[in-house]
Task: inverse folding
């Protein structure tokens, strides 16, 4: 049996990403505001886990970040503790490039490691 990561798509994006991914834009409290802008992922690097780094089966790893007006990602931080998976996810999220947005937009990626045999 080999470990492989199943691609998924970020909501509003078009690039395939490794693992099961959910993107949630942040909200603001107070007076009524327009909803946060939809995020459109244009490009993402490859998620690389170190050889001796094994994600927990069924464990959700959350990484929060901010998409800047020019589409760059800043402040990538794990919300699921520390470790080799979380570090790799922070580095990967740092490679994301989005279509420009009108204002800084908080977002998160939830990633789940999935083990499967090829062809199953």
Result:
């Amino acid at each position: 049996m080999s470990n492989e990561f199943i691609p998924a798509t970020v909501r509003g994006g078009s690039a395939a990403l490794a693992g099961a991914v959910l993107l949630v834009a942040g909200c603001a409290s107070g007076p009524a505001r327009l909803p946060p802008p939809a995020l459109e992922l244009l490009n993402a690097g490859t998620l690389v886990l170190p050889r001796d780094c094994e994600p927990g089966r069924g464990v959700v790893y959350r990484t929060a970040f901010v998409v800047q007006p020019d589409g760059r990602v800043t402040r990538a931080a794990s919300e699921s503790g520390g470790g080799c998976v979380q570090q790799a996810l922070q580095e990967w999220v740092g490679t994301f490039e989005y279509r420009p947005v009108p204002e800084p937009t908080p977002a998160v990626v939830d990633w789940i490691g999935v083990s499967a045999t090829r062809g199953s």
The two ends are 10 Å apart (CA to CA).
